[in-house]
Structures are given as C-alpha cells and as structure tokens.
Design brief:
By secondary structure, the protein is mostly beta strands. The chain has a single domain (29-160), classed as Jelly Rolls, CATH 2.60.120. It has strands spanning 3-7, 11-15, 20-22, 28-32, 36-37, 44-52, 56-81, 90-102, 107-109, 130-131, 135-143, 147-160.
Length: 161
C-alpha cells in the first residue's frame, strides 16, 4: 500500500511507503499508540511515545483502557510531556485513585473522558501545544502499586495550522 499525502499545495500524492500524511490547514488528525500492557510487579511507570506532526497544534490527548486494570489498592496517574518523564503539557492526573480496579473503556482526556475518580486532564499553564517541527510526545502512566491485569492506548489529536 503506498503512502498518501494530502496537502494544499499538491493535493493528493502517492509515494513509496505506507500510511496517510495530511498537511492541509484546518484538517485534524489523530495518532495512537499500540495497545500497551500495564502489568508489572510493584510500583512502575509505563511510557508511550507518539510523534506530533510539524505545523500542528494539540487539541486533545488521552488514554483509554483496552483491558480493565486489576491492582492492589493504589493510584495510576497519567501525564504528558515533551521530554522523557516530563509533564510540560499535562500534569500527572489520576486515572485510578486509591482503588483496585478501573473498567475497560474508561480513561482520561482533555476532551472530557473522565477517570474512575471523575478527573479530567488539564493543560499546564503556558504549555507549548503548537510545534513548527515534528516532535515526540511522551505519555506516561505512573502506577503506585503492582498491576496484575490491564492494557491501554494513548492518543493525541492535532490540527494543522
């Protein structure tokens, strides 16, 4: 399958490779991580990365459980940054708060997906949501306790400007 690029300058262009690259102003796009296991013995961090395309502004970011979390009583906090283990975009917010489980399909996002504790993500003051060049976004789930079951996917939504 060829790579497809859509831009204001050239329209629809096919080239070698795979995937779709949308570069038209005002068009929104999404990028997802693969389903990532959260299973670990003891407190742990699970880091995922996604590339934010050049010339875009982040409009949403989040994490959704594709397999329910089962754990000993503890917290699972989600944060988003532009550096490894950073929180430059979104501070750590509880996906699971002092609980032993979180249901499949539950999650947390900027756009209103609420965690089991009712929390939503919030952008850090003066966060650089726009990028002129492609950059890596670091999405991290920090678990304060052992996780015996659970998996999920992180995503970003962006708009070309």
């Amino acid at each position: 399958m060829p790579k497809v690029t859509i831009s204001n300058n050239k329209g629809l262009v096919q080239s070698a490779g795979s995937g779709i690259d949308i570069q038209s102003v005002g068009v929104t796009g999404q990028a997802w991580t693969a389903s990532t296991s959260l299973i670990a013995v003891g407190a742990n961090d699970v880091e995922m990365t996604i590339t934010q395309p050049a010339g875009t502004v982040l409009v949403d970011v989040g994490f959704v459980l594709t397999t329910a979390i089962a754990a000993t009583s503890g917290n699972s906090n989600f944060k988003v940054g532009t550096a490894d283990d950073g929180a430059e975009l979104v501070a750590a917010t509880a996906l699971m708060s002092s609980n032993t489980a979180a249901a499949i399909g539950s999650g947390i996002s900027l756009s209103g997906l609420n965690s089991e504790g009712g929390a939503t993500l919030a952008v850090v003051a003066e966060a650089a949501m726009y990028t002129a060049t492609a950059r890596t976004i670091y999405l991290r789930l920090e678990n304060s306790t052992a996780v015996t079951a659970g998996a999920g996917k992180a995503w970003i939504s962006f708009m070309h400007v």
